[in-house]
Every structure is written in C-alpha cells, then in structure tokens.
Design brief:
By secondary structure, this protein is an alpha+beta fold. It contains 15 helices and twelve strands. It has two domains: 15-149 and 194-285 and 300-330, no CATH class; 368-512, no CATH class. The strands form three sheets. Strands 6, 7, 8, 9, 10, 11 and 12 form a seven-stranded antiparallel beta sheet that branches. It is flat.
Length: 514
C-alpha cells in the first residue's frame, strides 16, 4: 500500500508528460466517474445521511493534495502504459457488475473507486503510478464501509463496560446489550459502538503514517495502533460515561452531553497517539532527480506525446463502459412485471387460530406477506413468509438493515445461533419482549436454494440474475413461545417443519412461477 517513489535517479531517456498528455490523462481518469455516476452518487448519499461517513468529503481533496505534492514526478518519470494492468481494470468492472446484480452496494462502491488507481496504473505505468500509490489508494477511504462492525463493537463495548463496572465494585444485572445498575438502566446502542471513532482513527492513522514515516514497518505498526487504540478507548469512554451517570445519580452523561464527553475523550486519545508517534518520525525521502545522459542533455529533454497515450486512454474508456451497459440490459431482462400472488401453504392436519404474541420481523416491506398461527401438539406455532421481487436498495431480502427485531424496540434478540435440521440450515434466535420469550427459526429462500447466510444469499441472487431467471426471494419464519422449556419449543418447531416443509417449498416455487 505504501510504495515509495523510485529511489535515486531516473535513467537516460526518461520523458516528462506533456501538458496535452496531462489533459488526456485527466479525461481518461474521469471516464469511470461519468460511466458509474449512479454508484458515485450512492457514495455521496451515504456521506449526507450518516455522520459516521461525513469525512468522505475530505478524502478526494486530500488525495489530490498528496498527488500535487508529488507533481514533480510527472516531469521526472516517463509515462509508460501498462497493458496487463488493463486486465485488473476489467476485473474491477466485473466485480462491480457482480455486486450490482447481487445488490451489494458496498462492493459496487469499492469496485468503482478501485477503477481510478487501476486506470492510473494502466495509463501511467508501474513506476509513475507506483510513485503515487498511496495518494491513489487513499481514495478507497471514500467508500462508506464499516457498518458491518457495529454489532461486534456493541458486544465488545458492552462486555468491557459491564466487566469494568463490576471490577469497580458496583453490582450489574445484564440482559444482552442492556444492563442495570442500582442507580439506573443503560443500553449499548449503535452510537455507543465506537464505529465512528474506529473509522476516523484508521483514516487519520493511515494518512499520518504516510506523511510521518518512510519505513513500511513503522507505518504498519502505527496503523495497527490506530485500529486497537479506538476500540480500547471506546470501552473506557463507555465506562467513564456510565460512572459519571452513576455517581451523579443519573443527572449527567445521560443526554447530549453523553456524546460530547465521548468526542472530547476520543479527540484527546487521538492527540496523544499522534504526539507519541511523532517521536519516531522520519524525514521525507528526497524527490527523484533526472540523470544527465551521455549527450550531456538531461533525461527530461524529450516529452511523452499525447498520441502515445491515446490508445490506452481509449482502451480504458472501452473496458470501463462494458459493465454498466451489460448491467442495464440485464436489469431490463430480469424485471418481472407480474404482481406477486402469495398464498398460505396447504398444511393438512394442523389446526389454526391459536393466540400468539404480536411480533413481526423488522424487514423491508415485501411485495407480499402471509402469516398464520397453527397448533403443533399443545403449542402455537406462527408461520410468516415475506416474498420479494424486483428488488432494489429500498426493497430487498438480503440487507444489513433487515433483522428479526430492532434492539431499540420492545422485542430484542437475546441469543442467536445456527442449526442444521436435516438438510435444512436454520437460524435459531431467542427474542425477549411482551408476552414472554419466543424461539424463532428462520431462513431465506432464493432461486430455489435455502440459506441463512447473507453472503451465500447474495451469490444465489447474483447467479439467478446472470442466468436471467429474476431475483425472487423469500424469508420464512417459524416462531413459538419458549414457556420456560426451550427443548419443547424446539421440538414443536421441528415437528411443524417435518409436516409442512415440503408444502412451504411448493408454495414458494408456485409463486415464483407466476
């Protein structure tokens, strides 16, 4: 990631880039922005909607500034188009297409941003692009990625905070990410996860390491610290806030000041980290200089004409354009204008009509939904099916925002694990809420395949669309009250699945064929 500019001198025959060539380079590098404007807009939309990624606006200016600091390289190192690098650009385009078809926005965004350094590599060559490697790769920080770490960070923060409070000698009663002290109740939510601190710290840490050190080892060590320190600091921040609230009788650190204390503490931690890191700073490497040739003239006497870069520039535009054109065609071919007609499966021998707690999965609104309560033995079992067609970012089966229950609502998950019931893999979750705990089994049905994995689900979805079979998918949910007997609840779900599993599959296949 931190390739250094070529040390020493540039050999005889090095040609600086002409101004006309620079214009051609800029136009070629802007081609992905025009061709993938929708993806670029999706990145900006996230910047606008999430404070976690608001720093994205600063990434491009910083990258351009870093390139400007190395502007002498354009006069000292010859631009030598690399045709093998064009294959890497095509690979990024293929990745964007697969992510577009599978509906994985973050992969689309990474593939799109990766096209800029790859296009520069193809157009400028290994040496010139290599001397600008970090400024080009720094653009990847513009991609709003990190939400996937929220849940693990919430768990780490909750574990650390409860442990620290107990070590302090204060009794704690914990239920998932919620815990109670004698003075009040606390809950570790997304804003407390520390994901904002972590993303900001890694971004600043990489930039600081590049500007401060020349040794890749020192850079790697400092970046490693920029990952570990904010996680530890966030745990200390959460503990500090809980203690302030506890010692003040819940008068302080329970409102807006809660967040203010957090950012002040994080700012202090980052300042200390950078201050300590400055003791090992290294002087910046001298800029490469041109060597005088045998004829007595400088190696920069000639220039790289625009016509020598034109074939590669045209090839970059052509390779970048293939994927969005095919994506538009594939989208139209897979669109199914027929409305979804979903009915309850025919489950013979299962009486219906039993009472059941009022809970529904917290998923994006589907095209069709059916639900019914049956009696399996002496236990009520609720079946819910959510069916999706012509999916997009506002309506999708596989999404990071889909969950069985929102932690901030009355219903929340207390335990979750995978299970294998015969040939069917299900996700088993225990939900706490009004009416007592529920035992829930759920799985996704995509292109005739059952899975509990979002990654596998996206792959099935992408494969189906690549084969022009549409993107139909469904969520199947079975739930029953625990009633202080998880084994009996599990047995009821297993018996229901044995009786009705084939009927559920047949209903889904029939709906898809309409």
């Amino acid at each position: 990631m931190f390739l250094k500019p070529p040390p020493g001198v540039v050999g005889t025959g090095a040609h600086p880039v002409a101004q006309s060539s620079l214009l051609l380079i800029v136009l070629a590098l802007l081609a992905p922005l025009v061709l993938y404007f929708g993806t670029a807009r999706s990145i900006v939309d996230v910047w606008n909607s999430s404070e976690t990624f608001a720093h994205g606006y600063a990434i491009v200016p910083i990258s351009l500034w870093l390139i400007w600091r190395r502007r002498a390289n354009f006069s000292l190192i010859p631009a030598a188009p690399s045709w093998p690098a064009l294959a890497l650009l095509a690979l990024a385009g293929a990745g964007w297409l697969a992510a577009r078809i599978g509906g994985v926005q973050v992969v689309m965004q990474y593939a799109f941003v990766a096209m800029f350094p790859l296009a520069a590599f193809a157009l400028l060559g290994r040496r010139l692009a290599g001397s600008l490697a970090f400024p080009l790769l720094f653009l990847l920080f513009a991609v709003p990625f990190g939400e996937v770490f929220v849940d693990p960070l919430i768990g780490i923060t909750a574990d650390f905070t409860v442990w620290a409070v107990q070590v302090t000698g204060i009794p704690v009663l914990r239920n998932g990410t919620r815990f109670e002290l004698p003075t009040g109740s606390w809950s570790v939510v997304e804003a407390c996860s520390g994901v904002r601190y972590l993303i900001s710290s890694i971004t600043l840490g990489c930039l600081y390491a590049y500007l401060t050190y020349r040794s890749n080892l020192r850079r790697a060590l400092f970046i490693g610290l920029s990952v570990i320190v904010p996680i530890v600091a966030n745990g200390l921040r959460a503990y500090m806030i809980v203690m302030i609230g506890h010692l003040s009788g819940m008068e302080l650190a329970t409102g807006v000041d809660h967040l203010i204390y957090g950012w002040l503490f994080f700012g202090l931690v980052m300042f200390l980290m950078f201050w300590i890191g400055s003791y090992w700073r290294e002087e910046e490497a001298p800029a490469p200089a041109a060597q005088t040739g045998a004829s007595g003239t400088s190696g920069t006497a000639g220039i790289v004409p625009a016509r020598s870069l034109l074939p590669m520039a045209l090839a970059i535009v052509a390779v970048a354009a293939v994927w969005p054109v095919f994506a538009a065609y594939n989208e139209r071919a897979n669109h199914n204008p027929q409305p979804v007609v979903l009915s309850l499966p025919q489950l013979a021998g299962l009486a219906s009509g039993a009472a059941f707690p009022g809970w529904e999965p917290d998923y994006m609104t589907p095209d069709a939904r059916v639900a019914a309560v049956y009696t399996e033995g002496s236990r009520p079992v609720k079946l819910q099916v959510l069916y999706y067609r012509n999916q997009d970012k506002a309506k999708g089966l596989v999404s990071s925002i889909n969950r069985l229950a929102d932690p901030q609502d009355a219903w929340h998950a207390t335990a979750s694990s995978g299970r294998l019931e015969g040939a069917l893999a299900v996700r088993e979750t225990t939900l706490a809420g009004p009416g007592g705990p529920l035992l829930v089994w759920h799985w996704m049905w995509i292109d005739g395949h059952n899975t509990t994995s979002n990654v596998v689900g996206k792959l099935h979805q992408a494969r189906s669309k690549l084969l022009f079979r549409g993107d139909d998918g469904a969520l199947v949910v079975l739930a029953t009250p625990v009633n202080d007997d998880p084994q009996a609840a599990r047995a009821a779900l297993r018996a229901f699945l044995a009786r009705g599993g084939d009927a559920i599959e047949a209903t889904l296949q029939q709906t898809r064929g309409q």
